[in-house]
Design brief:
Four Helix Bundle (Hemerythrin (Met), subunit A), single chain, 6 helices
Length: 232
């Protein structure tokens, strides 16, 4: 048990180190965005929020996808580590979703003239956010570990199904959101200097995702080991 506890503490420290590196990288990227990336001529300065909003959305959807994949694997293998990973990743996905849902209106108000509209992509993103809030609430409500893991896995899989639908809403419905300008079959529509900043920001957000999940997973593992020691 002591070996497991030590491994969990090391994993937590590694996660914190990765998180610090991601935050430093993000600060450097946003300096690049503000000082050395051209301002979009129609949207003006508010467009700079794009370099936070889009990578946050990417990270949130990636996190929720990982929750769904881990949930499927858990139902197959019944490995509690997969359940801990799904739980840790869902919590991080909610953080990135909150960033996405906060920066979106800050960008949308000066550009669209409104803080919020029931645009298809916004609506399904909000549904996804509430689904994972429910995921976290469900985990807090159920005491039996096996039951908690099984029921949570079902919700995680529902989230995975919703993720690609959020992406294709701009093709299926008339929305204020433009169609993809980067993730599309043809070449990206952004000028290279803007695309470079976006990709660097997405990279930093991905590093943050790894750091946050690693830290939270390490802490969850420590709690699990401690619980086992207490029970013993």
């Amino acid at each position: 048990m002591m070996t497991d506890a030590l491994r969990a503490r090391r994993l937590t420290r590694r996660g914190l180190t990765i998180t610090i590196l991601g935050l430093l990288g993000l600060a450097a990227v946003y300096l690049l965005a503000l000082r050395y990336t051209p301002t979009e001529r129609f949207q003006g300065l508010p467009q700079k929020i794009f370099y936070i909003h889009v990578p946050a959305a990417w990270s949130a959807l990636l996190a929720f996808s990982l929750v769904g994949i881990a949930s499927i694997l858990y139902l197959w293998l019944r490995d509690p580590r997969l359940d801990r990973f799904a739980d840790s990743t869902a919590a991080v996905g909610l953080v990135f979703s909150l960033v996405m849902l906060t920066t979106g209106p800050l960008w949308g108000k000066p550009v669209w003239g409104t803080w919020w509209t029931w645009d298809a992509r916004l609506t399904f993103t909000l549904i996804l956010f509430f689904l994972f809030l429910g995921y976290r609430a469900l985990r807090g409500a159920l005491q039996d570990p096996g039951e908690r893991a099984r029921f949570s896995a079902v919700l995680g899989i529902f989230g995975l199904v919703l993720v690609p639908f959020v992406h294709v809403t701009v093709y299926l419905f008339r929305t204020l959101h433009p169609q993809p300008i980067v993730l599309k079959p043809s070449e990206p529509s952004l000028p290279w200097v803007m695309l470079r900043t976006l990709l660097l920001s997405a990279g930093c957000f991905t590093v943050l995702l790894i750091g946050f999940v690693t830290t939270r997973y390490g802490l969850a593992t420590q709690a699990s080991v401690q619980g086992g020691e207490d029970a013993g």
